[in-house]
Specification:
By secondary structure, the protein is an alpha/beta fold. It has 15 helices and 12 strands. The longest helix is centred in the C-terminal third of the chain and has 22 residues. The two termini are 38 Å apart. The relative contact order is 0.14.
Length: 390
């Protein structure tokens, strides 16, 4: 089976959790694909040079940033699509209803020349043959906010790279000279990630805060405000495979992630793999059972709650081996195995529907795609939404 992996065009112009997820998933799938009984080849698709129907299946990561067009094109060509939407768990019935009302209003006011991002995301979810959520909260958001049936959704978490389980603090302490307790926050520097909120929450504790992450030019003023605190040290961006990053997670007393929202944050999993407790936003899809001894969820704007949780971990640090055990099953190879099983199950199901055997690798002749007119698209979206709401 030949699987094409796609996301939005600018994906690899920056580094973050999604980039790591895509790379690690492809690598793990290809390791599995060496099994002669279930051959599988996964690769990034260059849509400027390759047709989607030269693949047996397309897996799209992220339902936003115009990716619904990829799902739409593949569906027109008859290529099944698996979608990892990476949606905020904040979506529920109420917010979904408001988004549908806003979409209908925007459509009617513009003769359906304008679509909302909600409508585009919903279209991608509807056209995909299978949807993979990162956790139960994201699954619930997909069902409640976008009216997608439960039978279409599978739940598989992200994985963790092995270097974080084996991380040691000595390299980080030697390179930085930081020897005492400190709080680490790894992620893009931005108001959404809320580094300044963390600094303000810990004001007066005389506790070093180490920041790792890229800062866009537009957020330089925000970074300057964060760095006004004498207790903040910014190390810039570190590559995911850099041993210094894993060492930072192992050396930290607490890892904090008080952002406005996360889906299934790799930084949290990587911190736990290094044995370090975490205080994070309560807007997330991560659900680890019996993890309260090492993982606290606090509202992004609750400075008092963040401060108290961090202080408690500093005063009573959990056993690092017990923290690691929370996530020791979260390997990329295990995740890839689950995803590969989905691919083969979907292929078999579609073959049964066609009363034929699963297709081998194939190359279809070029077929022109018909693009619906804006008014036609809007009418279709409206009809689909009203049908789903019913």
């Amino acid at each position: 089976m030949r699987v094409g992996i796609l996301s939005y065009p600018m994906l690899f112009q920056r580094e973050g959790g999604l980039q790591v997820q895509v790379r690690e998933t492809i690598a793990a799938l290809n390791r599995l694909g060496q099994d002669a009984a279930h051959p599988l080849q996964a690769e990034l698709v260059d849509p400027n040079r390759e047709r989607l129907d030269s693949y047996d299946l397309i897996h799209v990561f992220s339902a936003i940033n115009g990716n619904y067009r990829v799902v739409e094109a593949a569906s027109e060509m008859g290529v099944p699509v698996v979608l990892s939407p990476l949606l905020s768990p904040g979506w529920d019935r109420a917010s979904g209803f408001r988004a549908r009302v806003a979409d209908r209003l925007a459509g009617r006011l513009t003769a359906w020349h304008v679509q909302t991002s909600y409508a585009q995301t919903k279209k991608a979810l509807q056209l995909a043959r299978l949807v993979i959520a990162l956790g139960e909260p994201e699954r619930d958001a997909i069902m409640s906010g976008f009216l997608i049936e439960a039978s279409k959704i599978r739940v598989f978490p992200n994985g963790i790279s092995r270097q974080f389980f084996m991380a040691r603090p000595e390299l980080f302490r030697h390179r930085t000279g930081i020897t005492g307790p400190f709080v680490l926050m790894a992620g893009t520097i931005s108001p959404y990630k809320n580094q300044l909120g963390l600094v303000q929450a810990l004001e007066g504790l005389d506790l070093p805060i180490v920041l790792i992450g890229r800062c866009a030019r537009a957020d330089q003023g925000y970074l300057d405000a964060v760095l006004r605190s004498p207790w903040v040290r910014w190390l810039g961006e570190l590559q995911h495979q850099d041993p210094l990053l894993a060492g930072a997670f192992a050396a930290a007393s607490v890892v904090a992630l008080p952002s406005h929202g996360e889906v299934f944050p790799l930084a949290v999993l990587e911190a736990l793999a290094a044995g370090t407790p975490v205080v994070m936003t309560d807007e997330n899809a991560l659900d680890l059972r019996e993890s309260a001894f090492a993982l606290r969820k606090v509202a992004w704007h609750d400075a008092v709650g963040q401060r108290a949780a961090i202080q408690q971990f500093l005063a009573e640090p959990p056993d690092r081996a017990a923290v690691r055990a929370l996530v020791d099953q979260y390997t990329w190879q295990r995740v890839a195995s689950q995803i590969a099983n989905c691919y083969f199950d979907l292929s078999a199901r579609l073959a049964t529907e066609r009363n034929a055997q699963p297709l081998p690798q194939r190359v279809h002749p070029a077929t022109p795609l018909r693009q619906a007119a804006p008014a036609e698209q809007g009418a279709a979206l409206q009809a689909e939404d009203e049908s789903g709401a019913a």
